[in-house]
Each structure stands twice: as C-alpha cells, then as structure tokens.
Amino acid sequence: MSTELDPAAFGRVTINDVARAAGVSVSTVSKVVNERYGVAATTSQRVMEVVNELGYETSLVASSLRRRSTNVIGILVAEFEPFSVELLKGISVAATGTGYELLAYTGLVSGVSSVGWERKSLSRLAGTLIDGAIIVTPTTLIPSSSIPVVAIDPHTGQGGPATIDSDNVGGALVAVRHLIGLGHTRIAHIRGRRDLASAQLREDGYRQALQEAGIPFDQGLVLYGEYSAAQSAVVARELLDRPDRPTAVFAANDTSAIGVLTVARELGLRVPEDLSIVGFDDIPDAANSTPPLTTVAQPLHELGERALQMLLALLDGQPVASGVHLPAELVVRASTGPAPTV
C-alpha cells in the first residue's frame, strides 16, 4: 500500500498526518493507536497500515498520562565509559522480549559537582518517561522514589531498596595473591576514585592479601589513579621513576592499568619481565592491550542482566534482595610474570 502524502520526509509525523493519509478523523486515529473500542476492524487495520508506513509514534508523556505507564526503563549513567557501556549490553540482552524499551540517559553532571545527579535525573524522568530505573554508580543512596530503582555499584556501597555489585574485596584478594605467588613482594596499588566504595573495598582486598602473606604495608606504594587512564599514568610515572620502584602494580580498574602499561613502555620497562600489571573489570580493551592484560573479571553483562531482572520483579510488585554480590574471577594473561631477580 502507498499514500500520496509523505510527511516523514518533512519532519516528525503527527496524528493529523496519519488521519489525512488514512482518510479518517483524528479522534479515530487516537482510538486505534490507544486500543480503544468503537472503530471498525477494517478501519482500524487501515489506520495501523498508515501508522506503520509513516512511522508515527505517540508521545511517551501523553501515553503515560493516559495509561500511567510508558513501558520504558531508564538506564541512568554519569557518563558512557567502558564500564557502563558493558553493563548496557547486558541490560539490553535481558530486556529482549520483555515488552519494555530502554532509555539510556546521562545524568545532569556538572564539572563543579556531580553529587546528586541521579536524583535530578529521576525527578525529570520518573512517571512521565520511565516506569523504573537502573542507576549506574549513584553518588547517594536512593531510599525512596516514585518509581522502582535498582542501583549498580553505588558509591556508598550496599544500601537502599535494591543494589547489586561484584565482590570487590574478593577480586582484589585473588589479584594480589596471584602477584605474590609469582614472587612479588613490592606491589604498588593504584587506587580508584575517592568517592566510590568499590575503590576502598579493592584497597581493602589489596591490604588483606599483603597481610596474610606477611608483607608490610607501605603507604607510599598506594597512589590515587581515580579510575582514569590519564591520572593513573601520572602516578605510575611517579612510582616507576623511583630507584626502589615496585616490581608489580595492582590497578583498581583496567583503564588505570592500561595507563600504567603506557608509562612502562615509555620508560623502557618490559611487561612482564620488569614489571607485572593487574587490572580490574575485564573490559574489551584489556584483552586487546599490548601485552594482553591480566585482570579481575567482573561479570559486567551478568550485572546488567541481573539488575534488569531485579527491576522487572519490583515493577511486578515482587520483593527482591536488598544487596546482591556477584563473584569476580582472575583472568591471567601476558601482563604478569615472575618477579625479576635482583
């Protein structure tokens, strides 16, 4: 079927465009798209053919006001960096066949202060654009909201109505134990962001591994990389320029570890012959780095999938666990080797 009118070529298709192309009234189109009674089957079929041909979409806001739902789930992130992108992939897979669409939204994050961005985002979206939200690394607890909310890796750690994260302490423990098992005793730690519980937990695991091996903790070997490749490169240069430089580095995430790799290469250090490096997360760039990065794999896709399943349960009125931990596992690649002999 074809129509003489092609409003899609000139901009957004409106309900008036559909009515003209189908030869019916606007009220008839409204009844059809909103699945209300009072329209003959043949007329309804023709209207839907025009709707599909022209690509007409009803307003989410208007639809939500009528139905009190949008069938849209919001994924709120501070920025689209490797960690959140991998989570989005898992969420997307889990959403297939559920009847829900996804809206990925970067929050109102300013350069002055990012604290509380998720509250502002929720107030903008909740109820009119989204039925529920998955918030990635929220800066504050969300004890209550007008819509169901699940938090992934919250800044403040477990808390609030529904949270999910990986075993940060356990992951750090296996990473540092791996280095100790290779004979390293002078192991530096490039720490994550100061405002994130995950960074503190990974440092806790680092300290525990040293303690159980009887290796004294050296505060001078712990510097802040802020989960940033650029900042991690700065502190890595400080560590590796020292005459008593470490023989191994455990970085709080893969982005930081890749920053260390870059500096080691610039300083002429061989990895892993002169320096072993372990990251955390197992983002795609970890396997593609030179050399491929040994890292602690967070089940990022599974974190996204489980978060969506938790949110769907909340939307269905079912109870969910208040805090879920998923295991993290060591993935050994070519960036770690035996400690160099003195």
Question: What does this 3D model show about the protein?
Answer:
This protein has 342 residues and is α/β, with parallel strands linked by helices. The chain is 40% helix and 16% strand. A six-stranded parallel β-sheet has the order 2-1-3-4-5-11, sandwiched between helices. A six-stranded mixed β-sheet has the order 7-6-8-9-10-12, sandwiched between helices.
Mean pLDDT: 87
Supply the helix-strand structural class.
Answer: alpha/beta
Total E-strand runs: 12
Order of helices and strands: HHHHEHEHEEEHEHEHEHEHEHEE
Number of helices: 12
Low-confidence stretches: 1-10
Sum this structure up briefly:
With 342 residues, the chain is an alpha/beta fold. The protein has twelve helices and twelve strands.
List strands and helices in order, with pairings:
Elements: H1 15-22, H2 26-33, H3 41-54, H4 60-67, E1 72-77, H5 82-95, E2 101-106, H6 117-125, E3 132-136, E4 149-152, E5 163-166, H7 168-181, E6 187-191, H8 197-212, E7 222-224, H9 229-240, E8 248-251, H10 254-266, E9 276-281, H11 284-288, E10 294-297, H12 300-315, E11 323-326, E12 329-331
Parallel strand pairs: 1-2, 1-3, 3-4, 4-5, 5-11, 6-7, 6-8, 8-9, 9-10
Antiparallel strand pairs: 10-12
